[in-house]
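>> received
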Amino acid sequence: MIAGRAGILFAGLLMLCAAAFIAALASGSADIAFTETLKALHGAAPASVQSLVLDLRLPRALTAFAVGGLLAVAGVLMQVLLRNPLAEPYILGSSGGAAVAALLAMTLGMGSLIVDLAAFGGAMAATLLVFAIAHGTGSWAPSRLLLTGVVLAAGFSAATTMLLALSPDQNLRGMLFWLMGDLSFAFEPARSLCLLAILLLLGTAAARHLNVLARGELQAAIVGLPVKGFRYLIFAAAALATALSVTTVGVIGFIGLVIPHLIRLVAGSDHRIVLPASALAGGTLLVIADTLARTLMAPRQLPVGALTAAIGVPLFLLLMARSFRELPQR
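>> returned
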């Protein structure tokens, strides 16, 4: 029965993903008919249509899918690592560190390559800083790591506000869009897709270990799992996925929080299903959000992070309300 439910889930997600991609390729400031979109994918459309679909919209849609998948996978890993259903990719301050470093590079007038490198370095440095502070002189506990991440994230938020206040007016709009998530210049999906594929392969292979660790460190140690080393691997994978996502498209929230909840509600807690299903659902959600960002007020574009929040907040509240209703009454 579980296998049947998983099959239905994956079939539904694949159909939804295909529909989201078709809509992303056909929609925009210049709409394209469905048949013309399919012709462009086969190389049989007029040159202008083919260039619009293959050179602009397809790379952007693939980038959105890869980043959404990375954020969802990072959310699954963080919830296992911290054993907290409210954990999500940005909880360790990765987005705050990336934002501070990238905004500082923008303020100094650096080019896009330096901004990307600064964002990546800031995200990794912030995550390592949280880990070092939480570790202290002994082993870190999930609650200590979570609290340290929340406090440092607040500090990074204050630093971001200060940088925005001191930035020249001509740079302010670009900075704000980057902070709210922007796929306008996301035309190189290869890195994100490769990392997503690697994490899915490794994560699915280690799904049994994730299942055991999610039940508690003591039980994991009893069955022979090297808990300390495995936690380091999970930490590194989640931090890398978050850092690359922030570097590629800026700060996009709620995907890593809502999608794992939704998948576990439908398919249970077996990570052989949760990981790939979360990647597929997270990627599809970001493709849909980016399509809406491009089309709702075309030719103007909305920040995609604001739309993911608009979708994610009510969905998360519905999930929480359902969870509370299912709690046993005392």
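>> The mean pLDDT is 82.
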